[in-house]
Amino acid sequence: MRRSSSRAPRGSRSSKAQLVAFVSCAVAAASLAGSAAASSAGRPRGVAPEDAALYAQPAHGASWRCLTSGESIPWSAVNDDYCDCADGSDEPGTSACPNSRFYCINEGHLPAFIPSSRVNDGICDEACCDGSDETNGTAACPNRCAKIGKQYRKKLAEAQNIQRAGSKIRDRYISDSKKHLESTSAEIAKLEVELEVAKEKESRLRASLELAERADRGVIEKKKASPLYATLRKHQEAMSALLERSSRLTSELQRLTELLDDLSNGYNPNNQDMAVKGVVMDYRKWRRAGGDTSDVADDEAAKVERNVQLDSLLDEGAWPASSVQELSDRDPLELMDDADYPADPKDSGILYRIHEYLPDAVVPYFEAGVDTLLDLLIKANVIYDVKRTRRAAEEGEPENVSTARAAHQKADDAVHALQRDLEKKRADLAPDEKWGRENEFRALEGKCVSKNMGEYTYEFCFFGSTKQKPNKGGPTVGLGSFARFEPRDKNATPADDAFYLRQLYDNGARCWNGPARSSLVDLTCATENALLDVFEAEKCIYAMKVSTPAVCMPLTSSPAAAAGAADAGSVRHSEL
């Protein structure tokens, strides 16, 4: 038999409740039209139109099969307020099976599903505005669908108007991003050409520098190998030795005069040492010859007088020690330059200056030719004596070498600057999911919106950071920097519109004895970018609501479908 005492009736009602339910079922039997009462167009009550084929009445005498659990039951057992199928599919219009769902037709508004447990529970469910969930007489649920539907359609029309207007602005964002990318691509192509030209110039100037350095080294090596260089070095060594000896003698003479002064000043005339007396008398005579008229000068006057006499004695004439030292310290190569290379237009250095008189377009070819020719001539020892002009003040190298070095450095700097610009442009051009499927968010980068919330003013910068600024003074607190899109639906992908409706900004200022602050930003469609609301949802986690045209997707689905998606999951109900 189908009815088995082992089968549990719906729920876990008390005996009294079961009795009431039984009476209610008897009263409602007429409306159910037997055990398989139809709700619309022959469908059993609570069945959605798209599932009608699954509930087609079988041929006379045939059984109906449960949708997923597979049990076979009589057609009369469908919607008989007793749960026969393990999957609950036999009771779409009653509350007998806890795992079933009930379909509200809601004519004049949007259809909806509610859990079957809410059918005939004495509460008018908001999702079933037609009152079809309560038919056993325990609750009088008026049909409110016409009124609710009218209000809904009005709001839907307003929302769709905003979405259409916002979508046009979004299209402009996309167009602007496309132009930006095209412009960036053109700039990259231009920079690539400029970089190649700059590299060629840098290479040419590097070769010129190397040539100048080789030429300079050749000149130096040639001159160092000459007899004149060796002679100059010997003379310098001799001068250094003489200077050292002169300095030592001067020091010794000065010390000797100090000793004689001490002896002269402390000499006792009654001393019978004739040798000492003779020395003192001769020394005093020498001092008088130098202008000292006193027999015994005071110490300070004696020192001044002695220095005057020493200066006269050690007069260096036109070649003081400092001048000789300077000459001794000079590079012999410079001395050879001073002697061998007068400023003459025929000087070989003129080769490096001809380009100053040439048209700019010809200069690169001329320089390349000169570099090649000079290199060949120097290697063949046809020429080597490229003039070493004055030394550069800082680097101590010939002017032609320092000039070549400066030119090469400038060219090398230009190459690196172009490379940096090129890398930046290429990075800007690289795809990034944060810009959206069609780069609609790119136009918002760096754009900021703010809202005064009384105690604080909050600031949100797209793809930048979120901040909290006290209105009565105090430090600004960082609430996070852009990290990624954080859709509520964890299964959403960049191909889904919902993926772009929430962003995460993390690693903000650290809370006192807590984590770093962060912000979850919900984006909603509007014609303007604005910060609508901010509150601290959890400790150190802020919730922000921001409007932007960037999420105003094109209206591709029907209003009913769009509304259904918006109202999905709305199962709230009110008690009467």
UniProtKB/TrEMBL annotation:
Q: Name one GO biological process term.
A: N-glycan processing
Cross-referenced SUPFAM superfamilies, in alphabetical order? Answer: Mannose 6-phosphate receptor domain
Q: Could you tell me which InterPro entries the record lists for this protein?
A: Gtb1-like, Man6P_isomerase_rcpt-bd_dom_sf, MRH_dom, PRKCSH, PRKCSH_N
| Origin organism lineage | Eukaryota, Fungi, Dikarya, Basidiomycota, Ustilaginomycotina
Residue ranges of the region described as Disordered: 391-412
Question: For the MRH domain, which residue ranges apply?
Answer: 446-554
Q: Which keywords does this chain's UniProt record carry?
A: Coiled coil, Disulfide bond, Endoplasmic reticulum, Signal
Q: Please report the name of this protein according to its UniProt entry.
A: Glucosidase 2 subunit beta
Q: Which GO terms describe its cellular component?
A: glucosidase II complex
Organism per entry: Tilletiopsis washingtonensis
Gene3D superfamilies recorded for this chain? Mannose-6-phosphate receptor binding domain
Q: Which domain of life is it from?
A: Eukaryota
Q: Which residues form a coiled coil?
A: 174-259
